[in-house]
From TrEMBL:
Reaction(s) the record says it catalyses: ATP + H2O = ADP + phosphate + H(+)
Entry-linked Gene3D superfamilies: 6.10.280.40, P-loop containing nucleotide triphosphate hydrolases
Gene Ontology MF, one: ATP hydrolysis activity
Domain AAA+ ATPase: residue ranges: 239-377
An annotated GO BP: response to stress
Protein name: AAA-ATPase At2g18193-like
Length: 445
């Protein structure tokens, strides 16, 4: 039998010869490993190992491609991920790209860039590179309904990273970009229905002439509110914030509301309480307010239902209201109704007479921040000089005006009117100086 095997396998060695070969090989391998570890410095060793890994992992058979069609299946449903990539990828284009699509939309000032099929876009996420390519379907009368698709290619090792984190990151960035571009709407109540139009008020926190510290405090409060959706849920409170804006006419209450809406990208619901005749009317109006929104009730002191009844003095000079609803109770009820949904809810009351309002309506949790908008003073005027006249930094006439504003009370609305009349900054400032002189003279007489 053994001789038979020898015949078929002439080089077949005995067991002891195999052990000898094995022992020699192991000794040799150990020697190589020791020499590699001891003679080659650590950095060079790591470099060589990473190169070898990269070589094996960069082989084409380790690449995975995900195809992201314009539509899902053969239905006409938009594929959200395709739309997200369409918006997201142009933000990853760098100046080294050689082939791009470019265009301009009628109502936009800037040029738009888009991915071209002949150019791959490489994105980096968590230190890993991902390659995107646009695939265009050029077949005319094709039975495929898709015209474009993205192909996302990555190394197989990153499969989980892509599905669990990278794609969610692309979708989240797209949502943020959409809300950044969104123009809020303003809704007004006509009869029993809300009608809406785009909020065209251009006021932003940048253009508002407010004391910088107050402005920062408001922006910080809004940003904290926006960020804490999960926190409100955790502590079992409705995701809601109330602001009371009070101060004389022309100090910027409406402008601040527009700036808040433009900052949060929330729609505004402007509710005129005089059109509300009963609790059920009010409840219906509130129930129709959808998604993340700002409910504004301007000049709230003009409604008897919100007056401080412990102050008998005021009732003589106020028009009698319907007395048919209780705003405080109703807002509690609405909080309960809305607390289940994930929508943010901002309530803004404005008034020229804070002292007339029932304190129950102004307590924290109802009106969390009371913002006093007052007559124009130096730091806020510096902002107007910059926005209206382009004057930055120290300017002798601006300093003179700041001093005069300490001696008189004028609203930003009045000063704005003076600044807008003259295109020449020096003439505009001079006219304002003359106006303020006259104002101070009249007040001291
Ligand atoms: N703080 C401000 N910063 C910049 N502009 C302002 C400011 N306040 C008022 N203005 C200008 O004055 C105009 C009137 O202001 P706005 O309507 O915001 O005041 P208001 O306090 O709401 O007045 P009212 O109480 O009469 O409604 C605005 O169009 C705006 O241009």
């Amino acid at each position: 039998m053994v001789s038979n095997m020898r015949k078929h396998f002439p080089s077949f060695a005995s067991a002891s010869s195999w052990f000898e070969v094995y022992a020699t090989l192991s000794t040799f391998t150990m020697l190589i490993r020791t020499a590699f570890n001891e003679l080659i410095p650590h950095q060079i060793r790591s470099f060589l190992v990473s190169k070898l890994e990269a070589f094996f992992h960069s082989q084409p058979n380790n690449q995975i491609s995900l195809r992201i069609n314009e539509f899902w299946h053969d239905r006409c449903d938009d594929n959200e991920l395709f739309l997200a990539a369409l918006e997201y990828l142009p933000t990853r284009i760098t100046s080294t790209y050689k082939s791009l699509k470019v265009g301009k939309l009628e109502n936009e000032k800037h040029l738009n860039l888009a991915v071209d099929p002949s150019q791959e876009v490489v994105d980096e996420f968590e230190g890993t590179k991902f390659t995107w390519k646009l695939d265009e379907n050029s077949e005319e009368n094709s039975r495929h309904i898709w015209k474009e698709a993205f192909v996302l290619t990555f190394d197989e090792r990153n499969r989980e990273r892509v599905l669990d984190r990278y794609i969610p990151h692309v979708l989240k960035t797209y949502e943020a970009m959409k809300s950044e571009k969104r123009i809020p709407e303003i809704h007004s109540r006509r009869g029993y229905q809300w009608t809406n139009r785009k909020l065209s008020h251009p006021a932003t926190f940048d253009t508002l002439a407010l004391d910088p510290e107050l402005k920062q405090a408001v922006v910080d409060d809004l940003d904290r509110f926006l960020k804490r959706k999960e926190f409100y849920k955790k502590v079992g409170k409705p995701w809601k914030r109330g602001y009371l804006l009070y101060g004389p006419p022309g100090t910027g209450k409406s402008s601040l509301i527009a700036a808040i809406a433009n900052h949060l990208k929330f729609d505004v619901y402007d509710l005129d309480l005089s059109s509300i005749n009963s609790d059920s009317d009010l409840m219906e109006a509130m129930r129709d307010i959808s998604r993340s929104s700002i409910l504004v009730i301007e000049d709230i002191d003009c409604n008897e239902e919100v007056h401080d009844r412990s102050n008998p003095k005021q009732d003589s000079d106020i028009e009698k209201g319907s007395g048919k609803f209780n705003l405080s109770n109703l807002l509690n009820l609405v909080d309960g109704l809305r607390s289940g949904g994930g929508d943010g809810w901002v309530i803004i009351f404005t008034t020229n007479h804070k002292e007339k309002i029932d304190p129950a309506l102004l307590r924290p949790g109802r009106m969390d921040m009371h913002i006093h908008l007052s007559f124009l003073k130096g730091k806020a005027f510096q902002i107007m000089a910059s926005k209206y006249l382009g004057i930055e930094g120290h300017h002798p006439v601006v300093e003179e005006i700041k001093g005069m504003l300490e001696k008189t009370q004028v609203t930003p609305a009045v000063v704005g009117e003076h600044l807008i009349r003259n295109e020449d900054p020096d003439l505009a400032l001079e006219a304002l100086v003359q106006f303020l002189k006259q104002q101070i003279k009249e007040e001291t007489q």
